[in-house]
Amino acid sequence: MSNGLPSAVLFACTMNSIRSVMAAGILKWLHGTRIYVDSVGARKGEPDGFAIEVMDEIGIDISRHRPKTFEELDDDNFDLVISLSPEAQHKAVEMTRTSACDVEFWRTFDPSILEGSREMRLDGYRQVRDELMKRLKARFPAVSAPRL
């Protein structure tokens, strides 16, 4: 962990199509290549158009993301796994049982369960996005350049 930041973070949610993808996109946007970031789901979902749209509103493109499961990870060498749903938390604990990896559980609302108009549903996605942004900025503060 250089600069007090982990070098590799994995976000996990139920389907790897909304919450974990948003969180990964935000952390990459905040820290670029300083932190290796990936995301997975307990089960495999499909790309979510609302998630893509609300992330695009803040200039983060997640449209090329393809959902994957824990079993499909290329590498399981992470310093930190942040799970965003109870199902993902169970899988994260299972995956890290034999590794020196921290696991944090950030219970995060699943906006895909919302009903109502398109605008009402988008507002639910925006709330999740904005909450994740707030938590990620607090958990992974910006690293300033060293003073000379």
Count all strands and give the number.
4
Calculate the mean pLDDT score and round it: 93
Judging from the principal axes of the Cα atoms, what is the shape? globular
Question: Radius of gyration, Cα only, in angstroms?
Answer: 15 Å
CATH topology: Rossmann fold
Second rung of CATH, namely the architecture: 3-Layer(aba) Sandwich
Helix content: 25-40%
Oligomer: single chain
Broad CATH class? Alpha Beta
Order of helices and strands: EHEHEHEH
CATH superfamily: Response regulator
**Beta strand %:** 5-15%
Number of domains: 1
Q: How far from one another are the termini?
A: 22 Å
Q: Helix- and strand-based class?
A: alpha/beta
Pfam families: LMWPc
GO biological process, one term: response to arsenic-containing substance
InterPro entries: Ptyr_pPase, Ptyr_pPase_sf
Protein name: Protein-tyrosine phosphatase
Structural description of this entry:
There is one protein chain. The chain has 148 residues and is α/β, with parallel strands linked by helices. It has one domain (13-139): Response regulator (Rossmann fold), CATH 3.40.50.2300. It has helices spanning 19-31, 49-56, 86-96, 118-139, and strands at residues 8-13, 36-41, 80-83, 102-105. A 4-stranded parallel beta sheet has the order 2-1-3-4, with helices on both faces. Helix 2 crosses helix 4. The longest helix is centred in the last third of the chain and has 22 residues, at 118-139. The radius of gyration is 15 Å and the shape is globular. The model has no long low-confidence stretch (mean pLDDT 93). One of its GO terms (biological process) is response to arsenic-containing substance.
